[in-house]
């Protein structure tokens, strides 16, 4: 699928991130495939998934484009950190490979531009996960097919936020010609719609749809802050 065709298919649409962190009960391939199938049944237009095994299983099970990545570690550049990781995701069948495109050094010493070239040569597209306007502009110039606000608020030096960085969405949409994807802390349908109004081409939602552990903890935290408690003996 060409970047133009995929961009048209995703214009104004929802991408559902079907992932689970290490140690979470949801983190098994069969469960994540069911999440992807549920997202497709609900009208999602693409799936974002982590690790080659999971990507391959979702590609086989769901007739939607899959945006694949490979998280390796939890500090520094860990979203598809090397060319090797990127090619493994492409070989698993991802239509798009998502990778960290911040200005931090990559573990294999490669550049983001080199990763883009390798993925394109393998027949897949690239989504640049960025934290700032400057990184998004650079990633687009280096050949990224999509630019996503995934890392805003998660990289040292960028402001921590409780909600989506819609200002970054708006700035990127005004500055680059490639599609801008809003991702990060979008917790309601209203916020997703607002992201489109701010210039997003499409919207990724993960935790608010596919993370029951995190959602349960959010409700529990609210009750505790309200002065309630939990009955241990129920």
UniProtKB/TrEMBL annotation:
<dbReference type="InterPro" id="IPR011060">
    <property type="entry name" value="RibuloseP-bd_barrel"/>
</dbReference>
<comment type="pathway">
    <text>Amino-sugar metabolism; N-acetylneuraminate degradation; D-fructose 6-phosphate from N-acetylneuraminate: step 3/5.</text>
</comment>
<comment type="function">
    <text>Converts N-acetylmannosamine-6-phosphate (ManNAc-6-P) to N-acetylglucosamine-6-phosphate (GlcNAc-6-P).</text>
</comment>
<keyword id="KW-0119">Carbohydrate metabolism</keyword>
<keyword id="KW-0413">Isomerase</keyword>
<comment type="similarity">
    <text>Belongs to the NanE family.</text>
</comment>
<protein>
    <recommendedName>
        <fullName>N-acylglucosamine-6-phosphate 2-epimerase</fullName>
        <ecNumber>5.1.3.9</ecNumber>
    </recommendedName>
</protein>
<dbReference type="InterPro" id="IPR007260">
    <property type="entry name" value="NanE"/>
</dbReference>
<dbReference type="GO" id="GO:0047465">
    <property type="term" value="F:N-acylglucosamine-6-phosphate 2-epimerase activity"/>
</dbReference>
<dbReference type="InterPro" id="IPR013785">
    <property type="entry name" value="Aldolase_TIM"/>
</dbReference>
<dbReference type="Pfam" id="PF04131">
    <property type="entry name" value="NanE"/>
</dbReference>
């Amino acid at each position: 699928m060409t970047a133009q065709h995929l961009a048209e298919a995703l214009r104004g649409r929802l991408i559902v991130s079907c992932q689970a962190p290490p140690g979470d009960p949801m983190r098994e391939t069969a469960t994540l495939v069911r999440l992807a199938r549920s997202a497709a049944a609900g009208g999602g237009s693409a799936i974002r998934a982590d690790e080659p095994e999971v990507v391959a299983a979702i590609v086989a099970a769901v007739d939607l484009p899959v945006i694949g990545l490979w998280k390796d570690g939890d500090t520094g550049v860990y979203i598809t950190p090397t060319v090797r990781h990127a090619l493994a995701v492409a070989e698993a069948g991802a239509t798009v490979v998502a990778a960290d495109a911040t200005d931090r050094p990559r573990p294999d010493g490669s550049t983001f531009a080199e990763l883009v070239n390798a993925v394109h040569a393998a027949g897949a597209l690239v989504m640049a996960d960025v934290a700032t306007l400057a990184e998004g502009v650079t990633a687009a110039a280096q050949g990224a097919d999509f630019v996503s606000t995934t890392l805003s608020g998660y990289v040292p030096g960028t402001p921590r936020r409780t909600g989506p960085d819609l200002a970054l969405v708006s700035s990127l949409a005004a500055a680059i010609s490639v599609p801008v994807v809003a991702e990060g802390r979008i917790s309601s349908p209203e916020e997703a719609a607002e992201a489109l109004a701010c210039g997003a081409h499409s919207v990724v939602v993960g935790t608010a749809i596919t993370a029951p552990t995190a959602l349960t903890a959010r409700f529990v935290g609210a009750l505790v802050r309200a002065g309630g408690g939990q009955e241990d003996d129920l």
